[in-house]
Amino acid sequence: MLSIHLFTEPLVQSKGLEIPEYDGRDRVHALSAKNYKSIMKKYDVMVIYYHKNVDGNRSAMKQFQIEELALEVVLDDLDDEDIGFGLVDEKKDTAVAKKLGLDEVESIYIFAENEIIEYDGELAADTLVEFLYDVIEEPVEIIDNERELKGFHNNDEVIKLVGYFKSERSPHFIEYDDAAEEFHPFVKFFATFDPKIAKKLKLKMNEVDFYEPFMEEPVTIPGKPYIESELVEYIEQHDRPTLRKLEPHSMYEIWEDDIDGEHIVAFAEEDDPDGFEFLEILKEVARENTDNPNLSIIWIDPDDFPLLVPYWEKTFRIDLSSPQIGVVDVEDADSVWMEMDDQDDMPTSDELEQWIDDVLSGKIDPDDDDDDEDDDDDDDDDDDDDDDDDDDDDDDDDDDDDDDDDDDDDDDDDDDDDDE
Fold it and tell me: Are residues 261 and 354 in the same domain?
């Protein structure tokens, strides 16, 4: 897991360019068996960092103190939101961890409205703050006007649902809202009560549309009106999009959702002309193959992960200054990358689709590198055996020579005896 990066750059708010300073208030609490219940009752949302024990390790302790102080500064911006932050030590607070259901060290858990959300994203303060703002929002966002409808359509990088209901008191909306709580804030739920907005969304009363990332047209969930369990089941069956973007707040969750131990990964900077062109080709291929359950492509924009770019370039032996697509083994990071004949011209959608077909059929496989290495090792072993055989032959020759010398010496001795 990545180390924690706690940036203390000021957020652009009404304070202008005022640099936040630690005001002395303790907002980060060390939770124990005696105090955790009373502290958690003080906040609407409680964020808990379940961390390793740092006792006896001076450098680790110093780093942990820096992280805690940085959190104090960052949480100053969240002071009005009634969000608390607690620390649970894996060694000292095992009872608390067990009571709260914390089972993964160096993980962040968010307790909000009787829900426990495990944060599977980058442990960076700015990313965490943005995620917490999403957590405290309502699970369902209501679309009331044209401006909000435009915003809904502009957000095409995530899984989202939208439904049309009579009112907030409608039993069908209540079922929809309950389903939204199960996936909040990872899946975006929208609703409208306005018949004009519903008409533009092509929605009928109590109907819900499911939008896969980067797809031009939604899919209407069958079987309206729905109950909560039906909506939950449908989303769980369709929560792996054909093309999905690696986001800082969900990077670990996405990476763990592999297919047979592999990921097809595409690197492209959206703000770069070549990256934008390649991404559009990638979207076209994804749309044409959206019904293939075995195809899931992860798009990574290097601009979103500047600290990881050197690591990726070294691990995968690629240059991320230009678009790349490859297949990666999630266990040992072995990978095979599509060869671009001309960096000035992106591959066509047909060429890209053919390459992806070769990956899915097993014709292109990152494990083939392991086979090559094994062959090399076998060749080395054969060479060693040949060398050993040569050495044995040399030793035999030497032994024969020694025997001949001994025979000659014996003959000389016999001649001397005869002379005497």
Answer: yes
